[in-house]
Amino acid sequence: MKRLLIVHHTPSPHCQEMFEAVLSGATDPDIDGVEVVRRPALTCSPADMLKADGYLLGTPVNLGYISGALKHAFDQAYYPLLDSTRGRPFGVYLHGNEGTEGAERAIDGITAGLGWVRAADNVVVMGKPTKLDVEACWNLGATIAATLMAQ
Prior knowledge:
Blueprint: E1 2-8, H1 13-26, E2 34-40, H2 46-51, E3 54-62, E4 65-66, H3 68-81, E5 89-96, H4 101-114, E6 117-118, E7 123-126, H5 131-150
Parallel strand pairs: 1-2, 1-3, 3-5, 5-6, 5-7
Antiparallel strand pairs: 3-4
Organism: Mycolicibacterium helvum
GO molecular function, one term: oxidoreductase activity
Protein name: Flavodoxin
């Protein structure tokens, strides 16, 4: 069975709504053979990340950057993951109230360094998530899980 790890920092109701939609998509009953594991970014260990076959990363954008919690998860796991997780698929969802370009650049740099493969476009939501935003989050979760199912 493949393992999909959702690493998230979910401090607000808007982030929670996005997280729940991503989780719902990833655990859709039509997706078989994929175990979905979720870890808050501050408690996610390098072992959690090494055991995963694919990743969903969720964070608010604070001051134009990823949350300190998600940065911490990568700081503690970067070297153990380096060369061990190349080629693994990932997806990203971000919530911000202003520009998210810095956060997107940070995630691009981290995942490129790890050799991960983007399996879906980022979902970026500004302000309160709309119905279309929630659907995009659901689709993101389902896409990454289906990508693992097909491997």
